[in-house]
Inverse folding.
């Protein structure tokens, strides 16, 4: 029986929100072999070949010592896989054409990306009040995720003070809802994050903690926070690509950060999932690979990519109203 031809459309039959894999690769070659995308590692004189199931992959992060063939990039693009070049352990994240920026992905290109949500998004985005309403909606979902995962943490080692956590969330919810502009909203968001860092560090007995940008070389918690956050950025970039909304059309970070929509979406899950895992991993002396796997597993269990996509879709529809 002749071998069935697999079209690019067939490769996209698995919804991005249901795909299982995020890869971080280093010291290897990525190429196509026999129609399959593989990464090849060396051990002495031996070469080992590992398959990458592109149709079930959302993002690939290529670390130090990697190379990727043109044919492999073509297969990634056909399957809608986001590709990013990065440093050791996934930080910082680079692209092929713009180096040393916070978030940059090589997005698969297609003239047939969906337009429905982009049209809804731009119909309200230039309205300052509606953009602020969208930002507040994102922050409310962020608080809901913290409540969902911190109040019922499945790990015995992470048991925050419930009353104190409730006070932090209630205070944040009130102040965020009353913010009159984006500057005020960003200030209240920063206060919330600072309070959460303090609570989680005290909960696990980490001691004094100061968040450092790109924390590599500072302490384990900072390094793990960076690594986990970049994984969240990967999911966020995929969510924006799936819905066809450009990263520049942010609702909160856009005026001060490039790729602001990616930051907005990642914030939905960073505090709820990455933050406690980073501090627990630091306390346990976990290695980077183990921590990344723990984050990816939790992202899958919590359906984090689903949450990001649905948030974009519902926000676009609700704020566009009857303008279209």
């Amino acid at each position: 029986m002749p071998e069935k031809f697999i079209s690019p459309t067939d490769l996209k039959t698995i919804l991005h929100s249901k795909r299982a894999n995020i890869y971080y690769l280093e010291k290897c070659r990525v190429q196509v072999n026999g129609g399959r995308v593989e990464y090849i590692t060396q051990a002495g004189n031996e070469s080992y070949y590992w398959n990458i199931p592109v149709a079930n992959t959302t993002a690939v992060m290529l670390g130090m010592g990697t190379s990727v063939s043109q044919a492999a990039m073509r297969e990634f693009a056909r399957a809608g896989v986001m590709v990013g070049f990065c440093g050791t352990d996934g930080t910082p994240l680079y692209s092929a054409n713009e180096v040393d920026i916070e978030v940059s992905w090589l997005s698969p290109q297609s003239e047939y990306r969906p337009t429905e949500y982009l049209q809804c998004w731009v119909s309200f985005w230039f309205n300052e009040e509606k953009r602020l309403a969208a930002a507040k909606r994102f922050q409310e979902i962020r608080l809901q995720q913290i409540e969902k995962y911190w109040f019922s943490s499945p790990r015995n080692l992470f048991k925050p003070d419930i009353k104190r956590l409730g006070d932090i969330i209630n205070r944040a919810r009130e102040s965020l809802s009353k913010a009159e502009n984006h500057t005020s909203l960003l200030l209240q968001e920063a206060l919330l994050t600072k309070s959460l860092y303090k609570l989680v560090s005290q909960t696990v007995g980490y001691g004094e903690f100061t968040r450092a940008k790109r924390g590599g070389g500072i302490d384990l918690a900072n390094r793990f926070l960076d690594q986990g956050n970049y994984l969240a950025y990967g999911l966020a970039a995929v969510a924006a690509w799936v819905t066809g909304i450009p990263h520049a059309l942010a609702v909160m970070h856009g005026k001060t950060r490039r790729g602001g929509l990616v930051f907005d979406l990642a914030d939905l899950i960073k505090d709820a999932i990455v933050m406690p895992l980073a501090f627990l991993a630091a306390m346990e002396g976990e290695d980077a690979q183990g921590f990344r796997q723990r984050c990816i597993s939790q992202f899958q269990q919590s359906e984090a990519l689903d949450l990001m996509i649905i948030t974009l879709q519902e926000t676009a529809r609700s704020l566009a109203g009857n303008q279209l």
Notes: The longest strand covers residues 36-43. Residues 154 and 298 are 11 Å apart (CA to CA). The beta strands are 21-25, 28-33, 36-43, 46-51, 57-62, 66-68, 82-86, 93-94.
